Here is the input.
Amino acid sequence: MCGIVGYVGAKQAVPVLLQGLYKLEYRGYDSAGVALLEQGALRVIKTRGRIKNLEELTRQQGPFSATCGIGHTRWATHGEPSDINAHPHVSGNGRVALVHNGIIENYLELREMLKKAGFTIQTQTDSEVVAHLFQMHYRGDVVQALRETVKHLRGSYALGVITADAPDQLVCTRRDNPLIIGVGEGENMIASDIPAILALTKRYIVLSDNQIARITAGGVEVTDELGTPVEPRVETVTWDVAAAEKGGYEHFMMKEIFEQPKAVRDTIAPRLRDGLPALEEEGLSDELFRNVRNIHITACGSALHAGLVGKQVIERLARVPVMAQVASEFRYCDPIIGPEDLCIVISQSGETADTLAALREAKRKGAKVIAIVNVVSSSAAREADGVLYTWAGPEIAVATTKAYSAQLAALYLIAVRAGMARGTLSRQQALDICAHIAGLPRQIEETLACRAQMQHLASLYANRHSVFFIGRGTDHTACQEASLKLKEISYVHSEAYAAGELKHGTISLIEPGTLVVALACEPALVEKTVSNIKAVKARGASVILVTNDDALREDPEICDHLVRVPRCPAVLSPSLSIVPMQLLAYYVSVMRGCDVDKPRNLAKSVTVE
Ligand code: AGP
Here is the structure.
């Protein structure tokens, strides 16, 4: 959701900024722009639409010799996607250019104040006011000007600023929005995320909330909100550029689907000692599990769907009540949570605004908070009391696949450890289930062999307008993720239903030709689900049945197509049944001509409420 880049060094800034912006495309955007310090003056080039339009404009209006500049991809929140609303925004005197991610909540108030002070507001955005404020406060020191500027702001932001009055430097800050500084040799960058800096350097600094950095080709100076110098910690990216490239696949999503065995293996293996989960170092002690009153899981989208599986698995194995709640609702429902409770937040990016707000609410009420996070050093990772990283590597496609699978793996380990600590699982039972967990990467590999079958099924059903996913128990939670995958990348309406709930209303929507995808991988519930399938078949639905039950055959009374997945304990089955669902969504999206990796209206990292 919006992307910021900035560069200062010896290279020409335009290609570096464009390359950085391309790497942030996955975040979702509808316009793009750059601002350059070109021979003592600001040049701003911006446009609605894709970065390639911007690249074309820079070609037409160039060449540019600037070696310092900022760039932005905008995901519209305030004001339509348009050339004028695109970032960078320029101050009234034309000497300050600014890029902003986040939302300035009091921008209307600030607009009125600025109008009274004689400024003309050019755009519908909340961001433009920040450029004017910076101009108002600039007295020859960019850091001081930014420090004074942010005192006026309510809301969330990552900001990058250049000014013609202080060439060859950029200044940046953040609050509740990600921003990193890439540290090179004689050149430095700022960016919203690591892939944007990788062509230049693997070394980076994560700016903390309210810190301000002044960046030149030769160095980075960081100060806190009071102006006290801070010694920044330089970290090194552990994965290489290739991990964030398509590597021969047509889309990142397909590459990431096929990376799932590795993501799950890398998440599980380092945490198994003598065949049992060891989570103490990550903040999850046996004592904590023994004494916990309730566990609250909160997250958004697919991360919440992983949490819903986690709820079932933890409750079944550890017999402790687990509430799983949408993060955007969590803080507004005055949750009953306190020091006796454990809160688990789940997030691929670690920057989702609603999830961070829920994390803070849980901490404020005294609960211990553990984050299951994929992006190292992200806000959730830093703010939680403990972190369990999902070692899925960079996930670029907006639709998550491998991070979701890695989240499931982390939750299984928590469930087993909690069960052992609470005495609801014997050591032998824990060893047995862990052996199955350790075997999941190989079983996911086996499951991926259904690729051709799912491509064929997609070709049969890609034109359907509405699809229902049904299942019971963990199959139902897997259905929720399957349905989200399909709708977000193929724009096909779909719903996930507990199979037994259909007859309470939704079955009236089933008519001849409606596609119903049924998941039946919980042995104890297969027969019940089959009865529900028969009810939709009797009303003319076409049924794809995903099952690990060898007794079920492709039988016209039960299903039109049978997709077989490997057998595993019921609580782990979402890890396998989701794979054909991801592939189905992928191929339907391709066949409908959708933008698989960057679906319309969506952002990879949702950093606004
Ligand atoms: C899933 O495919 C999504 N695009 C979305 O639901 C995502 O899972 C959600 O926005 C949460 O993101 P996070 O994991 O980065 O917090």
The chain has a mean pLDDT of 94. The longest helix spans residues 427-447. The two ends are 12 Å apart (CA to CA). The pocket of 2-deoxy-2-amino glucitol-6-phosphate is lined by residues 300-303, 347-349, 352, 355, 398-400, 488, 602, 605-606 (CB under 6 Å).
